[in-house]
Write a structure and sequence with these properties.
Radius of gyration of chain A: 24 Å
Main location (chain B): membrane
Oligomer: heterodimer
InterPro entries (chain B): MetI-like, MetI-like_sf
Largest interface: A-B, 122 and 122 residues
Order of helices and strands of chain B: HHHHHHHHHHHHH
Strand order of the largest sheet of chain A: 1-2
Pfam families (chain B): BPD_transp_1
Shape of chain B: globular
Helix content of chain A: 55-70%
Low-confidence stretches of chain A: 1-34
Number of strands of chain B: 0
Strand content of chain B: under 5%
Number of helices of chain A: 13
Distance between the termini of chain A: 39 Å
Strand content of chain A: under 5%
Structural class of chain B: mainly alpha
Keywords (chain B): Cell membrane, Membrane, Transmembrane, Transmembrane helix, Transport
Structural class of chain A: mainly alpha
Shape of chain A: globular
Family (chain B): Belongs to the binding-protein-dependent transport system permease family.
């Protein structure tokens, strides 16, 4: 996954360690706006403008032009031509569908398993650090390495997965060419890499839930399962919104895994696991149509905005429902 | 990290499930070692070997002949090192300003940083590529380093840490003594921020080392990073599975070593950067 970086929403107020109360009246903190604070921000924001904001806006601009890789300086106005060409290309729709199905296949199991693992990690354990670190090993493995390893494990003739299936009497599965099979195989790379990471994020969220709540539930005679459903899950709501948002953004851009699963840009012989990210790469760096690739990038961006918006709305509605009870 | 530890002990089943999860996490990496130290013929036997064999050095030699792995390792080290140092510095500077200084537009600028965390970097790849073509940076390491320095997460991470850990009184006292902002930064902020800088550095290094999309666009096989070299190995020119796995092992080992030594800090960093209520 692209480095979907964990963002750090507001931390809880620090415990008052200093003798001064933490909520001191706003004192004059420094000279009101000299040049100096901006000097501290300058390095980051200069880079941010040049390599962050500008490319994003310019993507929208380029998507309205014919821009070819061989002659990147020459832009020729096309209006919405790149977009209409996109929407009439069956491979675009295939990629959109694949992105969606593989997004579900990778995100849902990953988050559910992470939730279960976090719950177990939250018990008092021996070798706590060992478990946490070991579960993070896949996260430390690069997309490229993980994809090559899994491509081999899922090999048709000598892959370990098929041999294992053979042991239990199941015929070898064609992980490269079957549509569902190849999508499951590619999604499993994502699941392997991110489950442990998300488990740690959930664990951090669980540790902020006050233990009094559990004690109270215990007194009321709530079973472990009920405690999980009625104390842990509501307490984790913001964390769940966060992880599902980050995973959704990651799934929308799935690229390295399908590219390296077989090494070709088409995502399988009949594009059966070509994602939007891979389709964009193929258009831009396989067929040299940078303008077309920019249009795909912009479509991906809008898709992310819609998905994240839906996610936020659903979260808000649910918490309102809870409050209304 | 909060001190809340669940009072409930894990039972046998808990350990069993967790150990299974650890095995699933570790097995593909173990298998890489096995495959990298065997011959293709051994891997194709009816019952494949499950223990490392004697051919690791031969396979590594074959990788060195196939792909520019030596160059790639060096390049990855340069790129990841430069990105780490630059990111930690920029993030600490900006994080300090956001945490402790007052200036006009602070809220809006911080909002922009947070919002940008939602924007995947991949979406700006095309103009970025046109930019480096214009600057004649294709196949030059700075094409990967400079965009890699932009870390909204880093700024936010440092800000969160400094808001909590840097007492206002210290800064006030230094001001009263007539210290300039720059002086305050170097002699007060940096020493206090050091643990957070180390964690951010680790996370940044790992991310930079493993980055894939942008390097394969900006660099070619003449000047690869490790990930670009791996892509060549997996690109269908090399059919020898054990050689591919040897290359994968070589590319993954440095990060795994860092991880083995500093895994605890990385775990702590990820959990600190996670949602808190």
């Amino acid at each position: 996954m692209p480095s979907a970086e964990p963002l750090a929403p507001l931390a809880p107020p620090a415990p008052p360690t200093a003798p001064a109360p933490p909520a001191a009246p706003p004192r004059r903190r420094g000279r009101p706006a000299g040049l100096s604070p901006y000097a501290f921000l300058a390095p980051f924001f200069t880079l941010f403008a040049a390599f962050g904001i500008f490319p994003l806006l310019y993507t929208a601009y380029v998507s309205l032009y014919r821009a070819e890789l061989q002659t990147p300086g020459e832009l020729e106005w096309r209006g919405l031509g790149n977009y209409t060409a996109l929407f009439t290309d069956p491979f675009f729709w295939t990629a959109l569908r694949n992105t969606f199905t593989m997004g579900v296949l990778s995100t849902v199991p990953q988050l559910l398993m992470a939730l279960g693992l976090a719950h177990l990690l939250n018990y008092r354990l021996r070798a706590r650090t060992f478990f946490r670190t070991a579960l993070l090993l896949p996260y430390a493995t690069s997309v490229a390495a993980a994809s090559l390893i899994f491509a081999q494990l899922f090999g048709h003739d000598f892959g370990l997965v098929n041999r294992l299936l053979d042991l239990v009497g199941i015929h070898p599965v064609d992980w490269q060419n079957g549509t569902a099979a190849s999508q499951i195989a590619v999604s499993s790379i994502v699941v392997w890499r991110w489950t442990g990471y998300n488990a740690l994020i959930y664990l951090a969220g669980m540790q902020t839930i006050p233990s009094e709540l559990y004690e109270a539930a215990e007194v009321d005679g709530a079973s472990r399962l009920r405690q999980f459903l009625h104390v842990t899950l509501p307490g984790l709501r913001p964390t769940i919104v966060f992880t599902s948002t980050v995973s959704t953004i990651g799934a929308t851009q799935l690229f390295g895994e399908p590219l390296l699963f077989e090494g070709s840009m088409s995502g399988g012989i009949s594009h059966q696991y070509q994602t939007l990210g891979l389709y964009m790469y193929e258009q831009g760096w396989g067929f040299f149509h940078l303008g077309r690739a920019a249009a795909i990038a912009w479509v991906m961006f809008l898709l992310i905005v819609v998905l994240v918006g839906v996610n936020a709305l659903a979260a808000r509605r649910r918490s309102r429902k809870e409050a209304g009870r | 990290m909060s001190a809340h530890v669940s009072a409930r002990r894990g039972g046998r089943l808990t350990y069993a499930v967790l150990i299974c999860a650890v095995l699933v996490s570790a097995f593909p990496l173990y298998w890489t070692l096995v495959a990298a130290s065997r011959s293709n013929a051994e891997l194709a036997r009816p019952i494949p070997a499950l223990l490392p064999g004697p051919r690791l050095l031969d396979n590594l030699q074959a990788v060195l002949d196939e792909a520019a792995i030596g160059t790639a390792l060096l390049n990855s080290l340069i790129v990841s090192g430069a990105i780490t140092v630059g990111t930690v510095l920029c993030s600490t500077l900006a994080g300090f300003a956001f945490a402790k200084l007052r200036f006009r537009g602070r809220g809006a600028l911080l909002g922009a940083v947070v919002a940008s965390m939602m924007i995947p970097p991949q979406l700006g790849v095309i103009p970025l590529f046109m930019l480096i073509v214009k600057l004649h940076w294709v196949n030059q390491l700075q094409a990967v380093v400079l965009p890699g320095l932009v870390s909204a997460f880093g700024v936010f991470f440092m800000r969160q840490f400094l808001v909590q850990s840097l007492p206002d009184e210290l800064i006030e006292a230094a001001r009263v003594d007539g210290a300039s902002h720059a002086r305050i930064f170097w002699s007060i902020v940096v020493p206090i921020a050091r643990p957070a800088m180390a964690v951010l550095g680790l996370l940044t290094f790992m991310t930079a080392w493993n980055d894939f999309f942008w390097p394969i666009v900006a660099l070619s096989s003449q000047e690869p990073t490790v990930q670009v070299a791996l892509r060549q190995l997996g690109g269908g020119y090399v059919h020898d599975q054990s050689v591919i796995m040897a290359g994968t092992l070589l590319g993954t080992l440095p990060v795994l070593l860092v991880f083995g030594l500093l895994g605890r800090q990385i775990v702590g960093g990820i959990m600190q950067g996670a949602v808190k209520g």
